[in-house]
Amino acid sequence: MTRSVKKRFLIFILLVSPFLATSQRYLSDLDSSLLYVKDTVRPFLKRFENLQFSGYIQPQFQLADTEGAKSYNGGDFSPFSKSRFMLRRARIKLDYLLATENRYPKALFTFQVDATERGVNVRDMFMRLYETKGHNFSFTAGLFARPYGYELNLSSAYRETPERGRMSQILMPTERDIGAMITYEPLRRAAKNKFIKLDAGLFNGQGLSGTTDFDSRKDFISRLILKPVSLKKIFISGGLSILYGGWRQGTKYVYEMQSSNTIKTFTLDSSLNNIGKIAPRHYYGADMQIILKHKWGQTEWRAEYWRGQQPGTSITTVNPGIMPTTPVYRRNFDGAFLYFLQNIINKRNQLMVKYDWYDPNTKVSKSEIGKPGANFTPADIKYSTIGLGYAYYFSDFIKVIIYYEWVKNESTQLVDHLSDQKDNVLTLRLQFRF
User: Fold this and answer.
1) pLDDT tens across 353-392, in order?
2) Residues with Cβ < 8 Å from 21, sequence gap 6 or more?
3) Helix, strand or coil for residue 205?
4) For residues 66 and 80, what is the distance between their CA atoms, to the nearest angstrom?
5) What DSSP string runs through 42-93?
6) How many CB atoms lie within 10 A of CB 427?
7) Distances in Å between the alpha carbon of 84 and those of 74, 88, 164, 333, 342?
8) Percentage above 90 pLDDT, the chain
9) Dihedral sign, CA of 388, 73, 64, 304?
C-alpha cells in the first residue's frame, strides 16, 4: 500500500470512527474494524489530547470627527481619512495543559499570535509550572501579561468596550512583557485562602515596544487580588497593584518640575552625573468591581485608579522600547477608569458607559501649559474620555458593538491646543470568538 493510500485510509478511519463507536451498543461487544484505530490512531491522537485552541476576530468600521484624527481607539487615522475599515484583532491561542492524576494542573504552555492587515505579531509565549503538593503556587516565565490592574488584564475578547483606556495604552503598551513571576493561588476548593491571589514578578520593562532589554534595570510588578465574594445577589472583588522600576538615562539633560512664587516650570539639570542614572518609574494602583445580579442579568460597577512617577521625553510619556537619547522629563501622573454596565431586558442586551482620564503631569494644568520659558509641551496635557455604547450578544460567541467616544483635552496656551481637538470616534464592531 503506497504512502498516499495509507494516509487516505487513515483519514477515512478517523472520519467514520465516531459512527462505528456509536454502533457498539454494549461494552462487551468487539468490532474487529476498530482494531486499527485502537492500535495505531489512538496512541497518535493521545499526544494531542491536552491541546486546546481558542481565538477571536474583530472586524470593525470607524468614523472620526476629522481627517487624520489622533486616536487611542485603534490608532491614529491616516492624514486624508476620517473613516476606515480595519481588522482590529485576529488572534489564535494554543494552550497545552498537563494535569495530575487528580486533575489539578501540573504544567501549561501557551502561545498566542495576532494576525491583521498591519502584520503578524506574537502576543503570548510562556510556560507555567504548578506546585503539585499543596496546589498553592505556580511559576511563570516568558512573554505574558504584566500582573498590574484589572482593565489591563481583562482580555480584549471579553472586555465590553472596544479599547483599553488611554493611560493603559501609554504606560503599558501591548500589556505584555518578558519576565518571570511567582503566583500564590490556592486551587483546592477547601483551601482557606481560595479567594486570594498574589502575583509578583520581575520584567524587562520595555514590553513589546523594543526587541531587547536596553539596560540592566528590571521592573518589579505585583498585584494582590480578592476574588469575587458573594453577598447574596451582590459580588465584590478588587485588587492592589504596584510597579517599581525605571530605565537608564542616556543623556545628561534631565528636566524636573519646580515651583517658585506660584510659577511652575520644568528646570534643566545638565550634570554629567545624570548619565547612567535610573529615571524612576513607579506606579501604584487600586481597583474594585461590584456586580448586582437581577432578573435582567446583572448591573456592574468598576473603578480603578493609578498614580505615580513616569519618565518620558519632551513630546511623549509613552514607555520607551529603546533607550531615549533626548532629554529626560520626569513627571508625576494619575488617572482612572470608571465603568457602568447594565443588562437591558435580558443578558443579550447591554448598555455600557465608561469614563477615564489620564493626567501625565499632575503639577501643571490648563493655561499654565504653553507659558513662555516654562518648557511644557503637549505631553503634559490632561485628557478625559466619555464612552457610551450598546452591545447585542447573538450568543456567547458572537456579539456586535456600537460605541462612541467623546475625547476632551485641556485648553492650553500651546498653538495647536488652544481648545479641544476634534478627535471623537464612532466604532461599529462585530466579534466572533471560539
Assistant:
1) 999 999 999 999 898 999 998 999 999 999 999 999 999 9
2) 34
3) coil
4) 9
5) HHHHHTTTTEEEEEEEEEEEEEESSTT---SSSSPPPTT-SEEEEEEEEEEE
6) 22
7) 11, 11, 20, 33, 29
8) 78
9) positive
3-state secondary structure of 275: coil
Contact 198, 183 (CB under 8 A): yes
Cell digits of residue 313:
521625553
- Greatest pairwise CA separation for the chain in angstroms: 95
Pairwise CA distance, residues 52 & 42, whole Å? 18
Q: Can you give the pTM of this predicted structure?
A: 0.87
Cα Rg, the chain, nearest whole Å: 26
CA 9 to the chain's CA centroid? 45
Sign of CA dihedral 208, 79, 76, 160: negative
Cα–Cα distance measured from residue 389 to residue 412, given in angstroms and rounded to the nearest whole number:
30
Q: How far apart are CA 255 and CA 264, in angstroms?
A: 12
Q: What is the pLDDT at residue 391?
A: 98
Tally of residues, the chain: 434
What are 30's three cell numbers? 468487539
Q: With 0-12 CB in 10 A as exposed, 13-18 as middle and 19+ as buried, what is 113? A: middle
Distance of alpha carbon 418 from the chain centroid: 33
Question: How many other β-carbons are positioned within 10 Å of the β-carbon of residue 298?
Answer: 15
Render pLDDT for 74-133 as a digit per residue (tens, 0 to 9): 999 999 999 999 999 999 999 999 998 888 899 999 999 999 999 999 999 999 999 999
- In this structure, are strands 263-269 and 196-203 parallel, antiparallel, or unpaired? unpaired
Cell, residue 398? 458572537
What nine digits make up the cell of 291? 456586580
Q: What one-letter code names the amino acid at 430?
A: L
- Residue 41, Cα to own-chain centre: how many angstroms? 40
Q: What is the pLDDT of residue 304?
A: 98
Q: Are 205 and 197 in contact (CB under 8 A)?
A: no
Helix (H) or strand (E) holding 242: strand 234-248
Q: How far apart are CA 192 and CA 95, in angstroms?
A: 29
Q: In angstroms, rounded to a whole number, what is the distance separating the alpha carbons of residues 111 and 100?
A: 22
Cβ neighbors of 128 (< 8 A, separation 6 or more) are 105, 107, 108, 109, 110, 138, 139, 140
